[in-house]
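Data card: per-record layout.
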Amino acid sequence: MTVPATCWKVVVVLPVGSDDVGRVSASTRVMAVSVPNVNTVASAWGGYRTSVE
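The structure for this 53-residue chain is written out next.
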């Protein structure tokens, strides 16, 4: 078993409501981070933002 080099998270920002999948569109705000899997990672996550394609 190997340890991944990075950990990532993706957030889709939607207002409270139902049918979340149906409310996602091209203009929906999406944020993603890719963080190296090391003990020296900075606590400020903004430097790890990445694009979503």
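Known properties of this structure: Strands lie at 6-13, 29-36, 49-50. The chain has a mean pLDDT of 92.

See the next section for split statistics.
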